[in-house]
Design brief:
InterPro entries: DUF421, UPF0702_alpha/beta_dom_sf. It comes from Sphingomonas kaistensis. By secondary structure, the protein is of the alpha+beta class. The chain has six helices and four strands; from the N terminus they run H-H-H-H-E-E-H-H-E-E. Helix 1 runs antiparallel to helix 2, helix 2 packs antiparallel against helix 3 and helix 3 packs across helix 4.
Length: 173
Amino acid sequence: MNLFESLGPAAPAAGALLLTAGAIAWTLILARLVGLRAFSKATAFDFAATIATGSLIAQAGTRSEWAEYLCAMAAIGAVFLVQFALAKGRLFSRRFQKAIDNEPRLLMRDGRFLDEAMRDARVTRSTLLERIRKSGAHSVDEVTAMVLETTGDISVLTDSNPDPRLLEGVRGA
């Protein structure tokens, strides 16, 4: 059964508007239940879940049958459920966390590029130089450490004596 056939020629636009609003409301309810992490990019999966949710909202808004719409809504719920389960698993098991999360990687130390680490991470020297410029450092020699974070972001430490805890868990540190 078509969802909005009784609306006549305005059915597709009105349907898209109402269904998208419903999908967004459902997503906000789920985000409220799961917590602030729902749209973070703390891990690669969190980032992928955010993109998937957006795609599923768009799909829900274009459905013309109830069954299709409910499938899209269920898929949004499934993304949140998996994300919630993974977050809980990370909290309770270090081994689980290590298995599913990326490990931060040291790419530069005391003004020296770590070529092997850069090659393994598939990061170019020009990318690191760009990050150094954006960090406000005036020289490569000012860089104490550069870290490729679990999210894919690159952090630049320019303090000559950084707190060693900042490099805890960083491969190559």
